[in-house]
């Protein structure tokens, strides 16, 4: 999968910008604050319907403008060519169009253009709380499994309704149990499928993680992960459902006291290890950085093997804290990977003009105050 053309209107500091990209490597250089990240964030909007930088769409519109627009032309194996547009205006919200037809649900966009983002913020994946890792896992699986995404959306809706009942009901506990029963049934059905799919994907993914960590770090220290959930991760869906029901029954009074659902995949954890060391609690900053990079590179190659279309790779300012050897390893890996890659950097290091001059597969862009120039 690749994006051939990108047009931005009122998108952060890009008032009117149109860029035509190369099919392989696209290097985007410029000073900090010039608008480099905005370009690849716009691509992320067209793939995931949201920013990987901003916490809210309303912070994305240029200065005092009330709307922004992003559209791009894509080419892939499943869809030979198609256009995706994203518009946002204050008061009307966000809309996604594919070939000028509106999508009924923003979630229908997920997986249409598979994408992987590697940025300095990825340190949170290994150093922060369980919600960071659940979010990474849900996002990764949702792009390759529409069924998982539907179950995830349904599960969140069911849990929200169940929590509302726990918070608002006033009456005998036995009556509350009977009211919760249909919600419990739905919660267990969807939750068990989520747990089973997570376990299945992580079992395959850890092989990719081990390979990428070894490649990037050059160390023999073996990375691993452990999926912690309500039951044994290798159980069948039926066994997970049985265990799930048991835990709901056992924790009924605790949930009533807390007025929220405390049992289910929304409380799962993925624990990362280097050798016998739990990374989150004992890893150095350098180990966290290498592990988080290995996670995203593993995602790239996992997608490449699982999907008919190669994913788009976005790297945002990741070389600043790396030594020359690791930088060379990553750039060589991305050069060999045949998918489309976008790299933003405040420095031209480690790239050379020879990689772009006269090479129609690669392009080098320079950004200055929201203006993009094609250097090579």
Task: Outline the structure in words.
This protein is an alpha/beta fold and 376 residues long. It has two domains: 1-114 and 311-376, P-loop containing nucleotide triphosphate hydrolases (Rossmann fold, 3-Layer(aba) Sandwich), CATH 3.40.50.300; 121-306, RecF/RecN/SMC, N-terminal domain (Glutathione S-transferase Yfyf (Class Pi), Chain A, domain 2), CATH 1.20.1050. It is 42% helix and 23% strand. The strands form three sheets. It has a six-stranded antiparallel beta sheet, with helices on one face. A hairpin with a 2-residue loop joins β1 (2-11) and β2. The model has no long low-confidence stretch (mean pLDDT 95).
Summarize it:
With 376 residues, this protein is an alpha/beta fold. It has ten helices and 15 strands.
Structural key phrases:
6-stranded mixed sheet, 376 residues, 6-stranded antiparallel sheet, Glutathione S-transferase Yfyf (Class Pi), Chain A, domain 2, Rossmann fold, globular, single chain, 2 domains, 15 strands, 10 helices, alpha/beta
Topology:
Elements: E1 2-11, E2 14-20, E3 25-29, H1 36-48, E4 67-75, E5 82-89, E6 93-98, E7 101-102, E8 115-118, H2 123-127, H3 130-142, H4 146-168, H5 173-217, E9 223-228, H6 237-250, H7 252-258, E10 269-274, E11 277-278, H8 279-282, H9 285-306, E12 312-316, H10 324-336, E13 341-345, E14 363-368, E15 371-374
Helix pairs in contact: 4-5, 5-6, 5-9
